Amino acid sequence: MLELDRVVKHYRSGGEVVRAVDDVTLTVAGGEMVALYGPSGSGKTTLLQLAAALLTPDAGSVRFDGRDVGAFGGDEADDYRRLDVGFVFQEIELWRGVSAQENAALKLVADPVPWKQARKQAARWLERVGLGHKLDEVPEHLSGGERQRVAIATALANEPRLILADEPTGSLDSRRGRDVLELLRAIARERGAAVLLVTHDPQAAEIADRVHTLRDGMLLSEAPEPPLPARRALDAAS
Ligand SMILES: Nc1ncnc2c1ncn2[C@@H]1O[C@H](COP(=O)(O)OP(=O)(O)OP(=O)(O)O)[C@@H](O)[C@H]1O
């Protein structure tokens, strides 16, 4: 569903060229959750921005459902982000003084979705993340974990087929973090959405379907080591 093929992205800063993403090939299928680890500055955020059509690659291609995302013009990129992509960030931007339900519903007003229906869809997602009892609560009265779940419901309110998450558990304790990761994986499974997650959270390695590591813009590891019996079989075959 999301296919990055030999993607390169440079930045120029003060006469120097930084190869932020260096020949990365990565696929995330529908229904799959892929986690991306890597030290600070390794290119994780740049990779998400390429997937979101916020940046265009200098070489290689980014495709979603066969469409060349890197070649989108401004309007196409806006439509893609509005209709196909859901973002979950660590830094949560919610409107103060506006209820959880209306925060999530506001995401949909750019679409021609009537307000009543937007509120209904928002309520459904808030129930899905376990906040059905806090629909009328304003963010100031919610805990950090609850606000994170409102942010997830907001990101998912338009039923995106691609979910891009940048450190979605960064501000949560490990139990809440695990809940968020399991929720994202469940949503991938239920809706056939592709989830690409950038994280430092070690729990993601157990929960994600695949784990990759980025270093200096290069993708180091493919799938995790196969289990021991499979490795023995592979050794025997080689
Ligand atoms: N707008 C920019 N201009 C110049 N260099 C940039 C720009 N954005 C990122 N970089 C550089 O590109 C490299 C990759 O940055 P990126 O933000 O993608 O890494 P990251 O893995 O997400 O880091 P972190 O975990 O700290 O968020 C770094 O060397 C960074 O300094």
TrEMBL record:
Keyword vocabulary terms for this entry: ATP-binding, Nucleotide-binding, Transport
GO MF entries: ATP binding; ATP hydrolysis activity; transmembrane transporter activity
Transmembrane segments: none
One Pfam match: ABC_tran
SMART domains recorded: AAA
Domain named ABC transporter: residues: 2-237
Highest taxon above the source species: Bacteria
Cellular component GO terms held in the UniProt record: plasma membrane
Identification of the protein by name: Putative ABC transport system ATP-binding protein
